[in-house]
Amino acid sequence: MTYQPTITRPPEGWPDNLQALNTMTETPPTHVQDTTGDVYKIFGINKKSVSLNQSHKPNLTRLSPNKIESLGQVVEQSEPAAEGEGGHAERDHALLSASGANRWIHCTPSALIETRYEDTSSDAADQGTAAHELAEHKLHQLLGEPSTRPVSDWHDEEMEDHTDTYADHVMAELALAKETNPAAFLSIEERLDFSHIVPDGFGTGDAIIVGDGTMTIVDLKYGKGVQVSAENNPQMRLYALGALARYGMIYDIRCVRMVIFQPRLNNVSVEEINIDELTTWAREVVEPAAQFAAAGQGELTPGDWCTFCKHSAQCPALQAKYFDVIPTDTAGAPEAPDPDTLTDDQIATIVAHSGELKKWLGKVEKFALDQANQGKKYDGLKLVEGRSIRRFTDQEAVAQAVENAGHNPYQRKLLGLTEMTKMLGKKQFDSLLGGFIEKPAGKPTLVPVADKRPELSVATVDTVFQQLDGKEPA
Ligand code: SF4
Q1: Residues 297, 108: contact at Cβ < 8 Å?
Q2: Is the residue at 377 inside a domain?
Q3: 63 and 105 in a common domain
Q4: What are the pLDDT digits (tens) for 15-36?
Q5: Is the pLDDT of residue 358 over 50?
Q6: How many domains does one find in the chain?
Q7: Among 174, 280, 355, 461, which one is most buried in terms of CB atoms within 10 A?
């Protein structure tokens, strides 16, 4: 959503009777911007003031002419695809976006390189946007502010539950803040400008609780593809810097609490950072990286941040990272030697990279197929018809024919957990079937030591059999 002024303050000032403003444009104004840049929804225009329909500032219900900068409308704005977590569409088009900050801070040339590729939308991004709009509506309702329920094909019972939980969580954070600071207030879906640190940098904060002491920023992540942590999260920190620029002069903010709320993964991740640490990070890490990134300078630097980079299928640095760990033959082509012949170091390196390597190979294959479908030829490759499997042309006719022959064509099958949850809704699912759910131990998996799961102890001859009389176990 973006504010578009239709009537700005005339040089001679506003007319004596403000109601005249209603007839000055074809579309009567629905919103107003004050002299500090804040935008409010209008409840009505009286002769001497504009009354506000919703205000995130306590005790602010109307604006007098000397506080009004312009009147206008808030309009929908198209949004780019979601970043990373596969959910919330980052509502900005800045070259150095908050959502991509982890990437351009670590790999500074990536921001300009990515502009070669088109923005694409996805179901996950659209679903995330629908969840955010619903969550925003619920927060307005909980604040007692008028709000129209959004309409979307993505709304389902699961989204209802998760947005309820999110809204409850934000209200609980607000209540907590009010315990120490009764004047604390909640700002919803606020545009946060951090362009004093990153050229043209801005983003949208889902929920910001402002007051003296600790400011809290809650970010709803509706995706479930990647678990997002609030720790050292550049996107959250840039939002915090934007909010600090806005409110730091008015409130005595000493600390920022950043909360990632990712309900579909039961993930609530929190980082608290004091203002000195935050501003030092901005000065020492972000500002220099932003200068390099804006100019397209620096080294291609592969890492975790490559996952959602649009250049990843073609990036030579990423290719080198993966192929460097794979043994090659004398001609330099990747080899697949028998694991018995690999050294321990080679095995450890290959297994540690295998997950991302498989994903990357899939991306390269998809990229090459897309190109080939558009007519591109690759040496040694050709486009052919893939394998297909036989299928029934008319399922009803098949069932009828089998029944006529005296057989039952259907198999009775219990719905899986996901389908059952969708059918019953989470609350009924939990109350009805909670006692029938178990989570068996997972199969042993070899992962990098940085993985958060505790290490399994493996039963060996040494651990199972105890030494007797100083003798070594057999
Ligand atoms: S894929 Fe290449 S350009 Fe993109 S972030 Fe990784 S190293 Fe940088």
Answers
A1: yes
A2: no
A3: no
A4: 877 777 776 766 677 788 887 7
A5: yes
A6: 3
A7: 174
Instruction: Please check whether residues 174 and 285 belong to one and the same domain.
Output: yes
pLDDT of 466 reads 61
Task: Tell me what pLDDT residue 104 has.
Answer: 96
Same domain, 132 and 71: no
CA-based nearest residue to 277, from 243, 239, 232, 242:
232
In whole angstroms, give the CA distance from residue 194 to residue 181.
Answer: 26
* From 312, 314, 321, mutation site for ligand 1 pocket: most ligand atoms within 8 A of C-beta: 312
Please list every protein residue whose CB sits less than 6 Å from any atom of ligand 1.
103, 107, 110, 113, 300-302, 305-306, 309, 311-312, 315, 317-318
140-181 pLDDT tens trace: 999 999 889 999 999 998 999 999 999 999 999 999 999 988
**Distance (Å) from CA 231 to ligand 1 centroid:** 22
User: Could you read off the pLDDT of 286-320 as tens digits, one per residue?
Assistant: 999 999 999 999 999 999 899 889 999 889 999 88
